[in-house]
UniProtKB/TrEMBL annotation:
AMP binds at K408, G409, A410, H411, T412, G437. Residues 224-497 form the YjeF C-terminal domain. Its cofactor is Mg(2+); K(+). Keywords: ATP-binding, Isomerase, Lyase, Metal-binding, Multifunctional enzyme, NAD, NADP, Nucleotide-binding, Potassium. The keyword Metal-binding applies. Its EC number is 4.2.1.136, 5.1.99.6. HAMAP family: NADHX_dehydratase (MF_01965), NADHX_epimerase (MF_01966). This is Bifunctional NAD(P)H-hydrate repair enzyme. Signal peptide: none annotated. SUPFAM superfamilies: Ribokinase-like, YjeF N-terminal domain-like. The gene is nnrD. It comes from Fulvivirga kasyanovii. It catalyses: (6R)-NADHX = (6S)-NADHX; (6S)-NADPHX + ADP = AMP + phosphate + NADPH + H(+); (6S)-NADHX + ADP = AMP + phosphate + NADH + H(+); (6R)-NADPHX = (6S)-NADPHX.
Amino acid sequence: MKILPAGQIRNIDAYTIKNEPIRSIDLMERAAKAFTRWFTTRFSPKYQVTVICGTGNNGGDGLAVARMLNEKNYKVSLYAIKKSASASDDFKINEKRLEGLIHINKITSPGEVPEFSTGHIVIDAIFGSGLSRDVEGLYADVIRAMNNSGNTIVSIDIASGLFADRHTFSDIVVKPEFTVSFQIPKLAFFMPENSRYVGDWYIVDIGLMQEAIEKEASDYFMLTDGFVKSELKKREKFAHKGTHGRALVMAGSYGKMGAAVLCAKAALRTGVGLLTMNIPRCGYNIMQSVVPEAMVLPDEGDHFLTSYGDVSKFDALGIGPGIGQEQETVYSLMQVVQAFGKPLVIDADGLNIIAQHREILEVLPSKTILTPHPKEFERLAGKWSDDFERLEKLVAFASENDVIVVLKGAHTSIALPTGEVYFNSSGNPGMASGGTGDVLTGMITSLLAQGYLPEYAAKVGVYLHGVAGDLAAEVTGQIGMIASDLIDFIPDAYQNIR
Ligand SMILES: NC(=O)C1=CN([C@@H]2O[C@H](COP(=O)(O)OP(=O)(O)OC[C@H]3O[C@@H](n4cnc5c(N)ncnc54)[C@H](O)[C@@H]3O)[C@@H](O)[C@H]2O)[C@@H](O)CC1
Ligand SMILES: Nc1ncnc2c1ncn2[C@@H]1O[C@H](COP(=O)(O)OP(=O)(O)O)[C@@H](O)[C@H]1O
Ligand SMILES: [K+]
């Protein structure tokens, strides 16, 4: 699914209006209906609803929603902030449609800012994607009062005061519990810095024309079920273990064999045909007893990796989880990436080693997959001042080094060397605990070995990992969930997507 900036969404609105054809006021009616449908399935008419409108089209949506909720027997109080801005045509039409139905309370001075008694659901329709400058004055007074009221807020399209496509410097922004956005997700929703200004967000379809969406170019996409499903490889009837790839994972050190074990189990559950674990000697008994399906290639070093063997017979190589940064380990990493000569997966200490020895970047095979969490990415690419700048750095790093970067977190972002970025839509905060990253490395390595091109191994791996986390959380809850639970749900994650 494409993520598009406000300007391009406006083009799609305009195209739909012209070519469907549909009048702009009827498109607004459709948007308001879609929002109302979402709202009524979540909140029953026992709730008192307060709708706060601006006078642009977002405000027009708010007026139409107020009318629809009133028809459905919700108790609706309605306010419009009427400052100097001249109202949009569709706002005015909706204003007329409300005559005799609901009174519109005008807010024209600070004294008219409502009290917001508790227990209301507040619908935020002040500004949408037309926000053009920081919020101040009377608008700021209203937003502060809304945020301080303690009421549940639902924003129409985007929280008022939040810029859809760039960093928002001001903190005068509505803090909704839910954002219900029209058809196309906004880039702002994927930025950790905006989390309190977005809440849980939902996309509702308002029937914008598909051909118009296709015409708009974008470098940003959201990974969805449909996309991943279409990329999954099927098992052939005459398949044997040799046809599902041979993976080699170099992982573990004394005290960190757990990382190697998690990575191994995840690779196996993701479907690799044959898995070999290259680990330090101290991990031999652990690996053989805990993961009997894996073959073990013990290193000469007792506590950490000191060398590497013949890598030519492997289809994929994953390196990094728990390896530490001892000098011999650094040396073998430098050598093995060149000896392997094909795209591989590098995680954790493997990335920290690269950050310390940047010359390795120059010898990485094209489309190698790097899977940093934000701190590891900072070590590789330097600091950023906000999340939009972080995204710029991510894109630049992937294209300058011809690598695929999987920047982990909520909405993990996968940057390709072409400049495209795919944001994940699966996963949950229960996954924020030690070891889940090692699981991801095992999964992506496994997919690479099974013949997925690096770009698809990264996308399918990240999405599947999140689905496994979501399924695990349904059973364990988010707080008690651990990385091993996630591995147990990889098979169900496959079933769920198919
Ligand atoms: N046909 C369409 O274009 C559709 C638009 N829709 C709605 O329209 C919204 C966009 O509407 P608009 O483009 O009218 O924009 P908005 O309703 O977001 O607001 C625009 C108005 O606010 C003013 N403004 C912007 N920032 C301000 C600030 N900081 N302080 C004071 N005034 C400020 C602008 O000058 C303009 O007059 C979407 O978010 C969506 O809710 C939906 O109804 C779907 C269909
Ligand atoms: N809030 C969150 N929502 C969704 N996924 C998350 C969240 N926090 C972490 N994750 C996922 O969990 C994994 C954590 O990886 P990482 O930080 O490397 O942990 P570790 O090194 O302990 O294995 C990543 O795949 C990340 O995307
Ligand atoms: K809004």
